[in-house]
Amino acid sequence: MNKENDTESSVESSTTTEAPKATATRHDLQFPRRFFHLSMGTGAGIIYYMFLTHQAAVSILGTAACLVYIVEQLRLNYPEHASTFSILTKYLLRAEEQLKESAGMPFVMGLLLTLLSFPKVVALTSIFTLAIADPMSAVIGIRFGKNRIVKGKSLEGSAAFFISTFLIIFGVFGFLFDNDMSLVTLLAIIVSLVMTAFEMLPIKLDDNLTIPIVMGLITWFCTGFLGIPTV
Description:
This protein is an all-alpha fold and 231 residues long. The protein is built from nine helices and two strands.
């Protein structure tokens, strides 16, 4: 009798804590994840530009990084409470991220390190590139990519990355910070070409971390070379 009760209790407990399994891979469109990526990054950039000082932005993102880290550790180390993270698992995680750290931590760390390392105009350009160009290239590449350049990358996806990055640089440096448009156009062409080539490289590091940092370094170097002010 006790054994039957224990079995029923065990089944009931496992049922109440079981979370939906993530089945999406990096080859799936997974629109909720792409939209979350785009909206969070774009929102962070807009808020930083319009309302926050550098110190305030660093403090807020530093706190966000701590919270994301804590949530990730709870999710990974307490599987008995997996149902608590059911929405996260169902809509935002990929299959390979269920038992390891998700892209959320590299994403917020990429934003934080970008803010810490670069002047505001460069940081904004890098943040918007990560937020917009990265998911745009993925969606276009998955949906319309037919001409493969390298493994996992298509001509269509890379073209989307180039165009998005070009427009971001042109908009941030030319309109938000009112620089000389001829120099801004040259900057946009050079940096977009270099970043598009970089994005094709088969680097094992998470691109949520590498894209904004490399974008910031290249943009900062090119602005100095072209004489475009960043302060």
